[in-house]
Each structure stands twice: as C-alpha cells, then as structure tokens.
Amino acid sequence: MRQLTIRLILAAAAACAAYGAQTDLLTAEVPFPFFVSGAQLPAGSYSVRIIRSPNEIVLRNDYTKRQTVSLFNSAYVPNAITEAGKAKLRFECEDGQCVLVNLWPGGALGMQLPTPKLRKDSNSRGARGEITVVETDLSRY
Q1: What's the rounded Cα separation, in Å, for the pair 64 and 78?
Q2: Taking a C-beta distance cutoff of 8 angstroms, is the pair 114, 38 a contact?
C-alpha cells in the first residue's frame, strides 16, 4: 500500500511538472536585423520556442543555429490580433534599429519582452526619431 501511494505521488508530481513546462514551437521569417535581450540578431528564419515555466522565449536562427533566450511577462493581446487568430511577433523600430517587444502566440494572452531604449543618448541628435511598429506572422511547426 505504501509503495502504491509513493508511485501515485510521483506520477502526480511528474504530471504537474510536465504541465508547468509546456512549450509551444513556432516559426517566423524576420526580414530585418533586430535586437532581443541586448543581443543583435540578423534577418532570417527563426524557430521560436515558448517555455511557459519559467516564462522564457528561445529564438533560434535556422541558418546560423545561434539562439537567444529572453524572459517575458504575460500581456494581453489586442482584440484585432485575437480576432484574426494569427500568431505574431511585434517589433518597434527607430532610425533603422528594431527591437522585439511582443510575441502573440494566437490566444488571449501574449508575451511582453524587456525593451531597452533604442538610442542610448536621446539628446545626441535632438528629438527622438519616429517609432514604427512592425508585425511579422508566426506559424506553427
């Protein structure tokens, strides 16, 4: 009886761990270089893995095989994106430099990534440049 109880507890713990570590695997074609978590990545095809616990996004360039890990916070997805049902990456670009700021995997909750200021010294050239928002579609593997 004791062994059965221990096995049930271990099985329940394994099921909880598997649920907590759910991952989504997506692909994206990004037509421009961009920054994420302080790293500059080239334009290209990317595999995007979302790890729900501990809230990580792993971006892997399919050509160079280089990967970057970023933590994220949960964020609500705009209604227009939710209604379209498409997964998207959202970038903010200023003066030709783009930063990955959001990932929307196709549900009501998305991911917000830490975003540094694009220009370190915003007074070096007067007023800040215009920030452009660019979205790229994601597809499921």
Answers
A1: 33
A2: no
- Residue 119 CB neighbours (<10 A): 14
User: Considering the entire predicted model, what is its pTM?
Assistant: 0.71
Domain boundaries, the chain: 22-140
Q: Is the pLDDT of residue 128 over 70?
A: no
Which residues lie below 8 Å from residue 73, measured CB to CB, with a gap of 6+? 55, 111, 112
* Residue 24, token pair as written in the block: 């989504």
